[in-house]
Design brief:
Largest sheet of chain B: none
Number of strands of chain B: 0
CATH superfamily of the largest domain in chain A: P-loop containing nucleotide triphosphate hydrolases
CATH class of the largest domain in chain A: Alpha Beta
Oligomer: heterodimer
Distance between the termini of chain A: 22 Å
Number of domains of chain A: 2
Strand content of chain A: 25-35%
Largest interface: A-B, 27 and 21 residues
Shape of chain B: elongated
Helix content of chain A: 25-40%
Order of helices and strands of chain B: HHHHHHHHHHHHH
Order of helices and strands of chain A: EEEHEEHEHHHEHEHEEHEHEEHEH
Chain lengths: 330, 267
């Protein structure tokens, strides 16, 4: 069901590939087995999954590079099959950031060429190419042939290309793949800024830390099906993953452990005597809200003095591994 | 169209050295065609031979003009055929700029634009050497001859562009060929040899003549000879008729196959 606030709507998307096997044999591979998700306008949505899960195929269908075999895919309300031209005008794509440009011509010339292909006026294409090269920090390398660009520079140029026509929707397939720490951070900041400026961004990647920093919502796909979706916080909470609580109390660790074990589902615990205090580390399978409420209520009503407290939340990576590993279904 | 025009001009600037080679080579070939036989026999024998090929009694200046102009067909045919086939193949198989193309336009539009815009520009670029060469031999009249020759070559190259686009599509999207140059490099010599360039028609094997007849190059050779010989009212009807038929046939075929290929590539 298309809602006005959704920039991307994918409903029951199916995609098959025919793969050759031997001399005459052919095998049908189901890349997408009916996935559905939507992306709110102006948000960053991450598509996660192991290699071969169907992330890039989904991006390619949204970018009109591939035709779906079944299902409905709308971008800004336009059907990717029936209104492909309208969709193309509204999306910017960065697929495999390490290539996709003519190697013998410069980054600037590649961008102008792409702008002209998109139907821009020559002067506007030149102006936009200059603006975007400045935005991604490639002004100094603008006139160097593309083959001299480092991987980081290529990634930045790919993002500049995706932004050239000032699209409403950006489809970025692993935009920081292979980048050094500094380049990856500058690309991340750029993506965040673009989202703040109102662009809808669909991103894929394997760096869970990065996705957690960037994404407002996540869809995890595996073997061509959606296995979990929601905001990173929802996903972690829904999956009831382990929180690690570190405490330092003034006395009687054994008594403390006995009481706490009755209060909460504790999966693991370790107690160390530090002489003047007791250090306790607990792994608790409970949502963050419940955990804090129960623990603090207990501490308030007891006569333990808390000397130190810290809590480690499960990461998106934990959630991802739990879902993809099959231990928990989202 | 604008994008391809822009890219072609950039490539011309970037690959100027390649174009200089394409100017030097045909000039050298036309010089060698006259000079080498002269060194082993006599200039009159060479003039007689050329006169028998074109069917008109020539003088040495006419021989130079004919060889110079005929040699311009070599880079036109080879550059257009090779470039159209190999560029499409590289774009989709090596450079992987296919997503850039597919996310902005359709294969049909891209191929048609490529097959029409690029040959016009490339033909102009590779035959630029004719302007100073013909002016040097014929004076200002050389410019008029150049314009006639250029028009004939441009029409020929447009058909060749569409012809090459069909091969390019077949090689890139319908076969597993990984060395397209082995095909791209075989087509121009076959067309040129079958067209009777520097040869009398009866000496050409029929299969080559038949192959060449799938392009307007044999008719272009006849027309160019007539223009080069300075005949005041060359009969261009035959050339135009063949060009029109082939142009419309290949235009229809490229358009039709372009639509099919677009669906296939996005499948």
């Amino acid at each position: 069901m298309l809602r006005d606030m959704d920039a991307i709507v994918v409903e029951n998307l199916k995609k098959y590939y025919i793969v050759r096997e031997g001399f005459k044999g052919r095998k049908v591979v189901e890349a997408l087995k009916g996935i559905s998700f939507s992306v709110r306008r102006g948000s960053i949505h991450a598509l996660l999954g192991p290699n071969g899960a169907g992330k890039t195929t989904t991006i390619k269908v949204l970018a009109t590079l591939l035709l779906p075999d079944d299902g409905k895919v709308l971008v800004e309300g336009f059907d990717v099959v029936k209104e492909a031209d309208k969709v193309r005008k509204r999306v910017g794509v960065a697929l495999d950031v390490s290539k996709g440009f003519y190697s013998s011509i410069s980054g600037y010339e590649n961008l102008v060429f792409y702008g002209l292909l998109k139907g821009m006026d020559f002067n506007y294409a030149k102006r936009r190419a200059k603006e975007l090269l400045e935005l991604v920090g490639l002004t100094d390398a603008a006139n160097r042939p593309y083959y001299t660009y480092s991987l980081g520079m290529r990634a930045k140029l790919a993002i500049a290309k995706a932004l050239l026509s000032d699209p409403d929707v950006l489809l970025l397939d692993e935009p920081t793949l292979g980048l050094d720490v500094e380049s990856a951070r500058s690309v991340r900041n750029l993506i965040k800024e673009l989202s703040t400026s109102g662009k809808t961004i669909l991103i894929t990647g394997h760096n869970m830390h990065e996705i957690e920093l960037l994404a407002d919502s996540v869809t995890i796909i595996n073997n061509g099906t959606v296995i979990a979706s929601g905001t990173p916080a929802e996903l972690k909470s829904k999956l009831g993953l382990l929180h690690k609580v570190n405490l330092r109390i003034n006395k009687d660790g054994e008594e403390f452990v006995r009481i706490v074990k009755d209060l909460m589902p504790i999966e693991g615990i370790s107690v160390s005597d530090l002489g003047d205090s007791i250090k306790i580390a607990m792994y608790i399978r409970l949502s963050r809200d419940e955990l804090i409420q129960k623990l603090f209520e207990f501490l308030k009503n007891s006569n333990y003095r808390v000397l130190d407290f810290s809590m480690e939340e499960p990461t998106l990576e934990d959630a991802y591994l739990a879902v993809v590993g099959g231990t928990i279904s989202g | 169209m604008k994008a391809l025009l822009y890219r072609e001009l950039i490539w011309f600037k970037r690959f100027l050295a390649d174009y200089i080679v394409s100017w030097v080579l045909p000039s050298a070939i036309s010089f060698m065609i006259i000079y080498l036989p002269v060194t082993i026999s006599d200039v009159n024998v060479v003039i007689d031979k050329f006169s028998s090929i074109v069917g008109v009694r020539l003088d040495i200046t006419s021989v130079i003009i004919v060889t110079l102009i005929m040699s311009s067909l070599i880079p036109v045919v080879s550059v257009v055929i090779n470039d159209i086939i190999q560029t499409l193949f590289s774009e989709f198989k090596f450079l992987e700029v296919s997503s850039t193309i597919l996310e902005t336009t359709t294969i049909r539009r891209y191929l048609l634009a490529n097959a029409l815009v690029r040959p016009i520009l490339m033909t102009f670029f590779v035959t630029m050497y004719l302007i100073p060469a013909l002016t040097a031999v014929l004076g200002l009249h050389g410019l008029v001859v150049y314009i006639y020759i250029e028009l004939a070559l441009q029409l020929t190259s447009m058909v060749l562009g569409l012809y090459a686009a069909l091969f390019a599509m077949l090689i890139t999207f319908y076969t597993n060929i990984s060395r397209p140059w082995s095909i791209a490099n075989s087509i121009p010599p076959a067309i040129l040899a079958g067209s009777g360039i520097y040869l009398q028609a009866y000496s050409i094997p029929p299969i080559l003549r038949l192959f060449a007849q799938t392009t307007p190059v044999p008719q272009a050779v006849e027309l160019i000879q007539v223009i080069a010989l300075g005949m005041s009212a060359p009969n261009i009807t035959h050339f135009l008729a063949v060009t029109a038929v082939l142009l419309s046939t290949y235009l229809t075929l490229t358009g039709f196959m372009g639509v099919k290929t677009d669906i296939k590539v996005r499948k």
